[in-house]
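Its record is set out here:
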Amino acid sequence: MGLTIAEKIIKNHLVTGEMVKGTDIGIRIDQTLTQDATGTMAYLEFETMGIDRVRTERSVAYIDHNTLQTGFENADDHRFIQTVCKKHGIYFSRPGNGICHQVHLERFGIPGKTLIGSDSHTPTGGGIGMLAIGAGGLDVAVAMGGGEYYITMPKIVKVELTGELQENVTAKDIILEVLRRMSVKGGVGKIIEYAGEGIKTLSVPQRATITNMGAELGATTSIFPSDENTLEFLKAQGREQDYTELKADADAEYDEHIVINLSELEPLAACPHSPDAVKPIAELEGMVINQVCIGSCTNSSYTDLMKVAHILKGKTVADGVSLAIAPGSKQVLNMLAENGALADIIGSGARILESACGPCIGMGQSPNSKGVSLRTFNRNFLGRSGTKDADIYLVSPEVAAVSALTGVITDPRKYADGYKVEMPKHFLINDNMIIEPASVEEMDKIEVLRGPNIKEFPKTTAMAENIEATCSLKVEDNITTDHIMPAGAKILPLRSNIPAISEYCFTVCDTEFPKRAKALGSSVIVGGSNYGQGSSREHAALAPLYLGVKAVLVKSFARIHRANLINAGILPLEFENENDYDNIDLGDHLAIENVRGQIAAGDTIVIKNKSKNTTINAKCSLTERQKAIILAGGLLNYTISK
């Protein structure tokens, strides 16, 4: 039996375990990336492990999230990260150089390599043929130290693309169609592998749009072959030496098979408040809009913005619409400036933002109250934009640009004129905003600079013999990490200060939760299905840890958040009978006796609800390694002990 692309890369990097679906495997990691919202904590964790220099082939720290500097906190974090990088062998991408996933694709991504990043959209690298996976910061720190990265060996889903896209139907519409079919839970425990004749019509930036937003499926990652289109992109970036052909064997076997005829696709939109609430633009046409935002790591490439510039050229943004555009990297911005496209964009009345994540994470450009905002981003969770009662629609750059001119949601196919953006033969290459680390000989001379907002990683202790705790919070299905630990300009600067940021934990759901949890001392959170979907931010585990949460009992977990809970030493439990969710209320007193013994013995944990005098069985499916991590009080304790 032949191998899929993902299986080939896993086989070449397998350190621990066997390639058996559903079992735990440890793989060698070639590259890592961090960004500044998660990076400070990741580097504090790396320092705690006592390793002097990273042991990966390439590790890069990007400054792209916390670039709004309204106080000293973000600037201090950036200085800390830069000095840590200089000292410990990590490349540093300065503020303004661009969004981590866009820059990594341009300058560092290599087909066939493994990459983990402390950002859930790290699978963008799958567009260039990498096995690229989002992870918590602690997992990234361990990988930087030379440790394996552990995942459950995933199922592989083949998405076969046939035909060719119509004009003004885009890669964004492909991934929205996949989300429409599979849902935000449909990719859990799976790798999405793209194949078929249709992929030959897609450039690397188009493929990266698809793999980027594959994170919204809950998938482990998504990946495309490395082929002549990949070689063309790498040549244009002056990196043809990094090319390796990579394709699935003809007799490779897949666990699922989806076929999408690109010729039949139409422009789509993800409606409020979920990336899988997908409808055709034709059903939404005529809806009045207030704001349009183009950019983010999903749709801010050179080819995306050249098409936007063409649509906007010589025209004016509609009265009552605010149009903001953020190029994905300095390379993109420079090229637009040199060829005149930037002037066309500015001339239309668009507002040019810096090359950073910006509005996608609620860092500026919040819509007006009850506003309708079209965004080319990847997430439209309630309140993520910074305006809780706004309606956010996720669309392609073409839909966004045309609608910005008409003032209403508009099908861009009506304005098709045959214009095509050609991939450049040579991108503008200038890496002057990437700082190389100090040499081994010079590293000891580097002083790591810390600001007063940077606090130590929260100390944890080994799992107690028994858990006696109160239900401090009960939440519904599809709770995101934005619910647990919100982003935005007010909260993001506190990412390196767990005591301070914990004051905002779950306040989207219950403003009293931080105060209540702290007063209780020990507590349990109860939730529904797909708990923890969204960002890889480990703060969504570290803040509850700081507030005394000992266990989280839900119907089902999102992959990265469950891993982050284990890394933090918080027990992840799932109802054996989902109806038991209805038998626990806020304030109920819960007890798990001999919890260490129960964890060691098997997969079932017995919970006593002393308030109702009932017993609940919970699944606790942990590998032997995960059991050891939980019993040690988290991955950091476990790693140091090793």
Q: What stands out?
A: The chain has a mean pLDDT of 96. The longest strand covers residues 155-162. Residues 230 and 283 are 36 Å apart (CA to CA). Residues 72-88 form the longest helix (17 residues).
